[in-house]
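re: ur question from yesterday

yeah so i grabbed the chain u mentioned. its 142 aa long if i counted rite. heres the sequnce exactly as i have it in my notes:
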Amino acid sequence: MNNKIYSLITGIVVVILFWIGWVSLNPADKKAMAQFISVKDLVDENISKRTKLGGLVKNGSIEISEANQLDCIFILKEGENELAVNYNKTRPDLFKDGAEVIVTGEYLNGVFYADELQTKCASRYEGDLRNESNYNLEEIDT
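ran it thru and got these structure tokens back, copy pasting raw so excuse formatting
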């Protein structure tokens, strides 16, 4: 009787470990697999995989296409580093000059092509992207 219970528990554990490994290596949504990195690291290392960046929208940098009102280019500032971001979907209401944003996408040929754009409302979240000490990027392995 004890061998049957032991075998059953071992079998369940093996199935769970296999499932966790499978899901980790083969996520259903590849878009969910974006790593948060700094603008400096992205540019210096020319990282072309899906990533997340955070920073401020540089004042006066927002350019909206006249041909397609969804097309938008702006400069993302993270400390002294700046990067052109191209975004072509509906923009959040709080998107404006000086707004704190998080963008997700890919870096190609000197431009970050974002497919996700989130604005940060300081009253809802802790931390402030304006203060670089709130970035703890050293803890993230690249």
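noticed a couple things. The CA atoms of residues 20 and 26 lie 10 Å apart. also The chain has two helices and seven strands.
anyway ttyl
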